[in-house]
Amino acid sequence: MKLENDSIREAAAKIRFKTQAFIGGGYVDALSGKTFTSENPATGKPLAEIAQCDRQDVDKAVLCAREAFDNGPWPKMHPNERKEILVKLAELIEHHGDELALLDALDAGKPISDCVNIDIPETVHCFRWHAEAADKLYDQISPTGPGTIGMIIREPIGVVGAVVPWNFPLLMAAWKLGPALATGNAVVVKPSKQTTLSVLRLAELAQEAGVPAGVLNAVSGPGESAGQAIGRHMGVDAVTFTGSTEVGRKFLQYSSESNLKRIVLELGGKSPQVVMGDVTDFDYIAEHVVNAAFWNMGENCSAGSRLIVHKSIKDALLERVIAKTKEWPVGDPLDPATKIGSMIDKRQMEKVLEYIEVGKAEGAKIALGGNRILRETGGYFIEPTIFDNVRNDMRIAQEEIFGPVLVTIAFETEAEAIAIANDTTYGLAASLHTDDVSAAHRLARAIRAGTVSVNCYSEGDITTPFGGYKQSGFGGRDNGAHAHDQYTEIKTIWIQLK
Ligand code: NDP
Known about the structure:
Layout (H helix, E strand, L loop, with lengths): L4 H10 L6 E3 L2 E3 L6 E6 L4 E7 L3 H17 L7 H17 L1 H12 L3 H22 L6 E2 L6 E9 L2 E5 L5 H14 L3 E5 L6 H13 L6 E3 L4 H10 L5 E5 L2 H13 L4 E5 L5 E4 L6 H13 L11 E5 L3 H12 L20 H17 L2 E4 L3 E2 L7 E2 L2 E4 L6 H4 L6 E7 L2 H9 L6 E5 L3 H10 L4 E4 L18 E2 L8 H4 L1 E9 L2
Parallel strand pairs: 7-8, 7-10, 8-9, 10-11, 12-13, 12-19, 13-18, 17-18, 19-20
Antiparallel strand pairs: 1-2, 3-4, 5-6, 6-22, 11-21, 14-17, 15-16
Helix pairs in contact: 2-8, 3-5, 3-7, 4-5, 4-7, 5-6, 10-11
């Protein structure tokens, strides 16, 4: 598919959706026969009728996964063989990249150019990276005396439940499935009911690549029923989750009230972007600030939603940030020029608009945007919005808005900048801009966040761990070799030599 209007629309008109759950190696309806309607948030129109799985479907999926793990070939396979299958999966995703990109664009209102240029290549890279790691990670021998051998080995944990969100539907699933499958587990994945289509298709591609039946099961359905059933299931050994802190907490409760399954949570954020007074390249910084705040409509857990800038340069920088933001077209996600698509649904749009009103009532000043736009499309579009004169104790500076809203807070001293950056219940990511290498090192260590990027906005890449301090995360990290820890148990084998 060329990234041109006509070919995208032609492909969108022809696309066929997989709307059933994928359990035990094939597509199936929900046992109740129920379906729910998935909506295209850029038009407000129905997109597909999807199988509405609940507890009994989760039971079936876990049973299949359990059987595949306990008696199937996958966990016992030579890592090299698992690698080959997952590399094949990466190739299939690449081959069907346009289709998968379109599914996410239609389902989530994400700009097609982001889906094609970011989500799909990163998904491919994620599967390939973890596949390639499968036969390159070594176990350990402990430093015993000559009469004994202490082996410290890692084994797959068993059946993994992956409950994933709507903001990066395929990519967030890949972040979980790549390492979980590479380490030999069986998985039950539940995409968000807002965005099920790409994950349902992915399950079929995994089967085509050679992943044995039952190893990867995808259940579509609401979090309250299907998600909770995974969290409470006695046959699930670990849950890996990305989403809100509120629901993350529930998984800890599900675990404590069931089988003490391992829980790994990647949660929300209110990430600071600190700009020191010594910087000179305002255009470069403005580009990164805008990307951090508005990429993926700000529906991004690591969004740099707080601009914390030295008082002496605040007005000059803000002027450039506003000018750069105006270069980001808002509109039809299928238009390749679009940089900001629609909010995920009406509820999220209303939540963001409410926060904008809260900000005004708190005394912050709107420097740009602030409104719902493109109503005539039926979609849920909000123009990128920038607040000035914000204090860090305001709700718009403390609470995760998860929309295209950037707040600007001024500081005078480095200590003040650090204090403001850290004055949050979250700690997922941060970026900082300075031309002073010593200040960069001091601040990077002082800011309490899982990822601190210096002189750019970045989440790192597949080689670096991603996850949060404080209420942004729990129990582990996605990405890099550290992700494998989530999905493996450590076993000691102690051998007495005779
Ligand atoms: P949720 O945390 O509700 O959703 C994340 C996943 O959890 C989805 O698959 C969802 O299923 C599932 N889920 C929801 N409720 C339960 C439950 N009671 N038990 C088990 N699983 C459940 O996020 P929302 O989609 O509701 O968004 C709300 C807010 O969460 C956003 O405004 C944002 O602040 C934050 N968020 C953060 C994300 C991140 O990347 N860290 C991603 C998404 C949201 P389903 O959607 O099908 O109900």
